[in-house]
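Record 1 of the preview.
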Amino acid sequence: MSGRPSIEIRESIETLKDLMKAQKTILNQNKVQALYLLKSQQALTVRKTAELLNKGETTRRSLVENV
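->
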């Protein structure tokens, strides 16, 4: 497995920015931020996304699962 997510992010970058600001919990904000990083291509893999968010190995997959 390459670590590249096989999901399609339909929301625009601007929509994801707005959603990030609207989140009330850190967990939800991190999930939206992970999508933002992937959509904006600041991170191309889930591992890089987790690194940018300072999340450990055990939580990196949960960032994009069940979103």
